Amino acid sequence: TNNSYNSMKIQYFFLVLLVICLVTTYIKAQTTPQVPKLAEAFKANITYLELFNPKFPIKSPGHVYYDKSQEGYRLNWNTFIGIYPTRINTTTLFHGDTSVTFYSDQCMDSGGSPFYDLWGFLYGATSGGRSEVNGIPCDIWYHEYPFGVNYTVCVDANDSSIPIQYLFTLFDEETHESQYSIGIDFKDFSPGAQNPQIFDIPEYCFKNITCQSGDVEKMQVLRFHSDDYWGLENKNSADLIGDTSFMCTTLSFDIHGYDTLISLIDVQYNTTWGQYSFCNGDSCIGGNDFTVGHEVTEGIGV
């Protein structure tokens, strides 16, 4: 009899424990923020954000088209270039395993970077609480990677399928201070499948473009540079007006503090101009190995 009574007590104890666990799990599920499921196909008007220097944020109007099922992502914005009061139409297009960038309709190969899931970082993302962007209440979700990269999206507090703001931030791993951010403020967000043609990459993007045959000429060019590299390979050089413009622009934004020297260089070159190649460090976008790239004023294109 005592054994039966003790057995019943043990069963009752485990039953109560099970009920407590179920109730606790239910309460936690109700109170823990759920990772949002953002629209996987949409179009929207945007404000493109460039925060290279918090004192001088650059905000540019544009549009975005995205369709995960088609592996298509098209981002277009009109940005100010340098110190000139003009805007340059810029488009970045990802489609399948290829991507290109356009500057005023001039196509530049971006190295073939494939399409990527814009919201992929939400797997394993952390809730950052409630915030407000442009007067709209939204919930912050972020994923911080160990190599100094942070992805953040603020999702409409009333509709978890609509993003209000998306940011990509590089930060110092030691101080945790932001180095710069780029991102998108979404407006007029419209979910739904997109026209496949909007993700088509023009055929001329895959051809080598050269101007008519030119002569070999000599000239003097200027280069604003650091004291650890004096060469011209994969580097910019310019005439007096061009380098003055470049110096004023970069120094005003405090993004070339390591450049302290100006060199005057005699060069001989072939004026059969090819596509200009954007190079930073050892990474270049566009251009080829057999023509001299000629940049239109302030990076408009070829």
Helical segment count: 2
Number of strands: 15
Determine the mean pLDDT. Answer: 78
- Please give the alpha-carbon distance between the first and last residues: 95 Å
Strand line-up in the sheet with most strands? 6-5-4-3-2-1-11-10-9-8-7
Helix vs. strand class: mainly beta
Report helical residue fraction. 10-25%
Question: Nearest-angstrom radius of gyration?
Answer: 27 Å
* pLDDT < 50 runs, ≥5 residues: none
Main sheet record: 11 strands, antiparallel
The H-and-E topology, N to C, reads as HEEEEEEEEEEEEHEEE
- Beta content: 35-45%
From the spread of the alpha carbons, the general shape counts as elongated
Could you explain how this protein is built, in words?
- By secondary structure, the protein is mainly beta.
- Helices cover 14% and strands 41% of the residues.
- The protein has helices at 2-31, 240-252; strands spanning 41-51, 58-67, 72-80, 87-95, 98-103, 106-109, 126-133, 136-145, 149-156, 163-171, 178-191, 216-225, 261-270, 278-280, 283-285.
- It has an eleven-stranded antiparallel β-sheet, with no helix packed on it. Strands 12-13 form a two-stranded antiparallel sheet.
- Strand 2 (58-67) and strand 3 (72-80) form a beta hairpin.
